[in-house]
Amino acid sequence: MCPALTSGQGSKANSTQVLKMVFRVIDAMDIPNGGRLIRLRLQEGEALPIRQIRGGRYTAKSPTGEQETLRAKGLAMVGGRPSNARLARTGRIDLMVTLDENGDQPRVSTRWEVTGPI
Fold first, then answer.
1. Which of 65, 70, 91, 118 is least surrounded by Cβ atoms within 10 Å, i.e. has the fewest?
2. How far apart are CA 88 and CA 110, in angstroms?
């Protein structure tokens, strides 16, 4: 099981508390229909259900301090169908993202930190 998943408060968080996940980008590439495909590894927080991750808005911060707001267009099927069990087991997920404001190509790259959903 992913260590980030066992260190949080788990199911003890009340329903009014906003849960956020912190991911590290471990790979990023441009995709043909616009946007980028980013492979994420969960660093902090409890994994939310896939249904809540899809379509969410996220803040991406570079190691030099640049920031972007991303919109998750969908989940990639690379390596098989994404599932809650796989995310809980591996702590990894592949997202297709665009810039939230205008749908342009984001600059997010490896070693960036992605937080959300916001």
1. 65
2. 22
